Amino acid sequence: MSTNARAALELDDIQRGVLTPRPTPYAATYLVFRIDDRAHGRELMRRASAVVTSAADSASPLGETWVSVAVTSHGLKALGVPRASMDTFGWEFRQGMAARAKVLGDVDQSGPEHWEAPLGTPDVHVVLTAVAPDATGLAGALDRARAAYDRLPGVTAIWRQDCYALPTETEHFGYRDGVSHPAVEGSGFAGSNPLEVPLKAGEFVLGYRDEIGGIRTLQPKVLGRNGSYAVFRKLHQRVALFRCYLRDNATGPEDEELLAAKIMGRWRSGAPLALSPQHDDPALGADPQRRNTFLYERDDPMGFTTPSGCHIRRANPRDASVAGEVRLHRMIRRGAAYGPPLPEGVLEDDGADRGLMFAFIGAHLGRQFEFVQSEWMNDSVFFGGGNTADPVTGSHDGVTGYTFPRRPVRRRLSPLPRFVVTRGGEYCFLPGLNALRWLGDLQD
What we know:
This protein is an alpha+beta fold. It has a domain at about 5-235 and about 425-440. The chain has helices spanning about 5, 15-20, 40-50, 75-80, 85, 90-95, 100-105, 135-150, 220-225, 240-250, 255-265, 280-285, 310-315, 365-375, 435-440; strands at about 25-35, 65-70, 125-130, 155-165, 230-235, 330-340, 355-360, 405, 410, 420-430. A hairpin with a 6-residue loop joins strand 8 (about 405) and strand 9. Helix 3 (about 40-50) crosses helix 8 (about 135-150) and helix 3 (about 40-50) packs antiparallel against helix 15. It is globular, with a radius of gyration of 21 Å. This is Dyp-type peroxidase.
């Protein structure tokens, strides 16, 4: 079989939310449903197949507006998916995120016992997501989505989270978000780093060859073909605490911004330290053609420019040989802010819930999301940093500080508090459109 034949994707059967970068700016809403009546749940799946936007619709009148539907392991059981089919799903998916909490570092304040109800419970069956460039478009997308669940008393809406992205593309800590995303072979969507060869489609979509030549599938074939796994996490951000930490460890405003860059790996504008090590460069940060074109091992192996322990270098070590085969752990990441921004300069917590709805898309929960979370974000053995965690999202205990290389002497900051607290989440499956119809046609 030729490379082109292997890479050709059936875009009309893949949900658009899997491959398409989100618009900038954008608004989004997550809706969670519980299936109380199997027949009504199946009807929801049938209707969803007509409502969900496919990856082939990128040039349709809908523009950058779409609806996606994901189902949890509990949801598939509620729909009556046979045990033989359930057993072909990844075991992490079948266990669910709450059961994997310790592996993910979701302990203490982030533990499932503290999650926002009903997240992490067996009641979470279906996650419907609507995305649009603005609030008006989002309202239209939600109206379109309503056709899937309207007048189905056996399907109950149990949770909602409204999200947004600012025109500045920043999240609550003030950094430009959504800067890096991989190119998927055969998708037609360019990646953000011209130096990265497109990844095999099987890394993100079931039924295609992945980086090691394997093809992940489910039984029956129609259920898995063109599907993907999705991770949803609600992450509360302690913005005032983060600002105070920077202020208390800096010698002044300029040094504060340098520390913020050394912690993240990019200046707040999105300009990477790798390309602008001494000062911020807003023009670079706003340029998607330039801001992600760099490597680490080739240009900065010791981390004097971009610290090995900073957030973006942990999340994607790029060409770093010490991290193993990086391409096997690549993910499609998306984030959407929720809650009101904390006014600029405020250093006291106002009690509002604000943070990020994080989404991961991939075909291998274990060696993608869970590996990165446990081995790269909450540990540092892969680059010789011991057991220190990611300075931004790591599971910190207030005892271990953050250290980064500097000549002539490395710089050590004070112990890190936990800046991000997990409020809930779930592992989901994003079926292809044909699979949605198959779920709708299930018989007892």
